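pinned: reference chain
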Amino acid sequence: MRPVIALLTDFGTQDHYAGTMKGVMLGICPDATLVDISHEIPAHDVLAAALELAAAYKYFPAGTIFVAVVDPGVGSARRGVAADTGDYRFVAPDNGVLTQVLRDSPAKKIVELTERRYARPTVSRTFEGRDRFAPAAAWLAKGTLLPALGRPVTTIHKLDIPSPESADDSIRGVVMRVDRFGNLVTNIDRKLMERLGQGGGITIDAAGQRVERLVATYAELPADGVGAVFGSTDHLELAAPSSSAASRLGLARGAVVTVRRA
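pinned: its structure tokens
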């Protein structure tokens, strides 16, 4: 099987950045299959990148190498790292973008990208994605072992990603991301909800606004209102039929969502 490298950035597609990274990788490992997860992460939004990466990585074949470059600290003293979870490898700035994937799948090895032979000869202080992260991923795809990329590290920077608070008769969560359809995706997962109880025996409140009901599919959402559904990541999301729940409710990331047993 050809090696797979998957890319996640905030570069967009208007400029040359994402394409240039691909060119660098193919120059080192021409057999690589390059896959775009997204290049539309909001600029500099490390948390959004961490969540999108976590939502995607487990659906790739074992052995896939992920390059996540959302890097407001580019050119600073922050480190570049590579991590190996056993099934997957990740290359990224050490700014928290790997927080959620390493929470789900703890790393067996992590190294700092210090070995210059696996970077381009000159590393730009404004485009390390091209000069440091893309080459490191490509060398891994070519068969280089992770420890060759640099010295081992035991800890990396982690974001404070909130977990839902659960009580006997309620769950208090927050909106973690708003997708392009305007769905408000929370940190409340299906298992927590099942412990609380469903089947019409709950109420859902979004920042003081009542959400009408929990349904199984988008097609069952209330025609003129906002309902709740478990999305593809098995997290509770607030949605409106053929419309934006975020706009209808006037809410964004960080909004509190409370589920109570009726």
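why pinned: DSSP finds six helices and 14 strands in the chain. Helices lie at 17-28, 46-56, 99-104, 128-141, 190-196, 245-249.
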